[in-house]
Amino acid sequence: MIVAQFEIRDDFRERSCVADNGFCPNWIADNLDRYWAPLGEHVYLTLVAVAIGFVIAAALALVAHRHRRLVGPIVNVTGILYTIPSVAAFFLLLPLTGRGRTTALIALVAYTLLILFRNMIDGLDSVPEESRDAGRGMGLTRRQLLWRVEIPLALPAILAGLRVASTTTVGLVALAFFAGAGGLGEQINADLAFKSNVVICSVLCVVLAATLDGLILLVQRALTPWTRAVSA
Amino acid sequence: MPAALEFREASKQYAGARAPALVGLSLRVEPGETCVLVGPSGSGKTTAMRMVNRMVDLTSGDILIDGRSVREAKPAELRRHIGYVIQHVGLFPHRTALQNIGTVPQLLGWPKQRIAERARELVALVGLEPELADRYPAQLSGGQRQRVGVARALAADPPLMLMDEPFGALDPITRDRLQDEFERLKERVSTTIVFVTHDIDEAIRLGDRIAVLRQGGELAQYATPGELLLRPADAFVEEFVGPDRSLKRLALLQVSDVELEPVGAVASSDTPLSPATSLRDALAALLQEPEGRLPVAEGGQVLGCLTVDAVHAKLRREAGAPSRG
Amino acid sequence: MILGSALSDFGDAIEFIFVAQESRAGGSEVGGTQLLGLLWDHLALSAAAMAIGIAVAVPIGVWLGHTRRGTFFAVGVANVGRAVPSIALIAIFFAFLGTGFVNIALALALLAIPPILANAYVGIRQVEPEAVDAARGMGMTGLQVVRRVELPLALPLVMGGIRPSAVNVVATATIAPLAGVSSLGDPIISFSVYGDAGRLGASIVVAALAVATEVTFGLAQRWADPLPSQRRPVPA
Q1: How much is the average pLDDT of C56-76?
Q2: Chains contacting B with at least 3 CB pairs below 8 Å?
Q3: What is the C-alpha to C-alpha distance for residues A84 and C214, in angstroms, rounded to an integer?
Q4: A140, exposed or middle or buried, with CB in 10 Å at 0-12, 13-18, 19+?
Q5: Which of A62, C62, C78, C130 has its C-alpha lying 20 to 30 A from C177's C-alpha?
Q6: CA angle (A211, A215, A220) in 5-degree steps
Q7: How far apart are CA A27 and CA A10, in angstroms?
């Protein structure tokens, strides 16, 4: 009897907490599974957008590395894409690509380009000139120089850009529901006044961003051992 | 096998430049020789060197390695058989010293085992402490880095090696030490070397033959160090070599090159000179003596006596002027 | 053809921007000059948020940079700030504090702070130590050093942090209507009232406003630079 009373009291507390739109840890614990699907969509959109953005930015960077005068125009164009707010971008694309993931991805990818491109170019530019001269003088072809010397030395900057792009994209994917692409933002929007809902979605977003950031940092450490070597 | 190198009227004119960088350079470097290109800035010495491995392309004339024009081969292919050492070394920051050294062998497709062995061999040859071999360039001092740079250039056993002011960025003490070691290294490595410097003393010390270039890219004189010091071709060379060229010349000679006088009365407190002492150091010691003479001894046995006059006479004889006795 | 229908959609949107029309639900006027009212609301919200953000972030960043401590904090705050989605910030403020101009302005201010703080910190830190040393040697107090030496030299970088911050605030103000605060996002959020043309028209205006903000602050940044030849590093 007493146990049943406790249960009823807990249940009552939880229900009144929910009714008050409060922050209810019990409710969160019970209802966590309804957040997995939106989280999954969120992860998918983030990873795909950053991956595509990375590929495009890399292609642009390789071309601009050969033909320097393209750097300015590319920065300008990607800069405009970066400046246009994502929500506005979703609806500007709507007449052309309709509602859904594609529209969201186009806008998300466009947003990452400036950060990634600029970091890649800066990274390639930071390669010491004498290493380049020595490399050429020793008989490395242009392509060998690029892949064996310049790109490895540009990795710290490239990966730093990737970290920034990933964390900002996580934030933007939260708005992707405007384009009809789901994600944790949709879940927030579904019950904006309910504190528990808002908090859990926000926490998941931040955790996702932190995880991506940490993973890329680990990759960076693994790939660039020389940056941690203590100077003589 | 060391290569023979020949410049034939090699010239370079950069587009848009008022004056040519190099004008009609012609000289021959015999296999195994060290040819030093020396001159003030603007003399085209670095340009001439970089034309050999086509880092700079000839405007006219030709450069032949073992009789074959450098224009024939593809640049990258050509460069893999020429050692290349530059002033700021240009080590790859993301590779260890060993990995840097193995760069060209790797390009040439050597098996891993052979590359590793060769790298270790060179580390010892250039006098780098073995435990530093796995360090990254950022962890090495300037002198250590340049040693790795030299090792890297020698890795594929090239018949020809180019060195552009390799010790220029180092402090004087380290530079001196590396020059010493380089002299010894030259004996153990059989390769033809083209060495660029603006420092006439370095040129005299390290070169078998020296090409003095004047501003404007013209060859002023191509001679052995001794020849250069004794008979500078014109006012420019004379001034470039320096007013103390006689003393420089003395540094190239030894006590054993001079006729000794019979031992006369010498104070027992005098420290005898060794036959291997340079005449310059010997003269410095002699000038401190009231009589201007010192005994020469080797292995406890006195060989004779060296006088200031004898040194003077030697110098005058070499210059071809009548000795004043 | 998609392109054809897209063009007509854009045509309708442009018309919405400039010509007032009757709302979908009927009974009220939308578009045209009514948009100006929304634009004003949007700017007011953004300006308030930026004012608060700058007032908080610049002194803290400058102080941390001047006293040369708290690197971890200053840089960390920028990283964390990037990770928090804008909509989450708005939602949390709305859920916990309720609706209202002030609440949402505060949320946006919180969004604005990280890049400004980080840049202010870096900006002050990168001022030549010799210049600061000379200033102290001449007898300037700490505050005078900040005002006369460090701040002017750090200004381009500070502006370099304010610029993206402002653009971000202007962009995020678009979703303020989710929390019941009026802005140019009204036609986007309250789709039923404004219709397709309204939603697209508002998007165009928002995009244009963001670009205008970027350009304006970009010019201000160049104007604020006492040493135009220096190239600024790329922070936030």
Answers
A1: 84
A2: A
A3: 10
A4: buried
A5: C78
A6: 145
A7: 11
Calpha distance B161→B80 (Å, rounded): 11
Q: Do A229 and B138 touch (CB under 8 A)?
A: yes
Residue with tokens 């890399």: A58
pLDDT at B38: 95
> Do A229 and B55 make contact, defined as CB atoms within 8 angstroms?
no
Instruction: Kindly list the residues from chain C whose CB atom is less than 8 angstroms away from the CB atom of residue A122.
Output: 234
Tell me the per-residue pLDDT of C128-174, one tens digit each, with 9 for 90 and over. Answer: 788 888 888 888 887 888 888 888 888 888 998 999 999 999 999 99
pLDDT digits (tens, 9 = 90+) for A33-46: 888 888 999 999 99
pLDDT of A231 > 80? The answer is: no
Contact status of B77 with chain A (Cβ, < 8 Å): yes
Which chain C residues are Cβ-neighbours of A174 within 8 angstroms? Answer: 85-88
Please name which of A112, A102, A219 lies closest in space to residue A169, comparing C-alpha atoms: A112
Q: Are C179 and A60 in contact (CB under 8 A)?
A: no
Q: Which residues of A touch B152 (CB under 8 A)?
A: 138
Cβ contacts of residue B87 below 8 Å, gap of 6+?
Answer: A130, B164, B165, B166, B168, B169
Q: What is the DSSP string of B108-121?
A: HT--HHHHHHHHHH
Please tell me if residue C82 touches chain A, with a CB cutoff of 8 Å: yes
CB neighbourhood size of A4 (10 A): 8
Average pLDDT of the segment spanning C123-130: 84
Q: How far is it between the farthest Cα atoms of chain C?
A: 74
C-alpha neighbours within 13 Å on the C-beta side of residue B56 = 20
Counting CB pairs under 8 A, whether chains C and B reach 3 or more, is no
Residue ranges of chain B whose pLDDT lies below 50: 322-325
Nearby residues of C18 by Cβ (< 8 Å), 6 or more positions away: C31, C32
SS3 content of chain C, % helix, strand, coil (to 5): 80, 0, 20
ipTM of this complex > 0.90?
no
CA C176-A211-A147 angle, to 5 degrees, is 110
Find the helix packing angle between A71-83 and A36-66, rounded to 10°: 160
d(CA C225, CA C159): 9
pLDDT confidence of residue A1:
63
Q: Output the six-digit token pair for A84.
A: 């246009």
Q: What sections of B135-286 are H helices per DSSP? A: 142-154, 172-188, 200-206, 225-230, 235-241, 245-252, 279-286
pTM, rounded to two decimals: 0.82
SS3 C47: helix
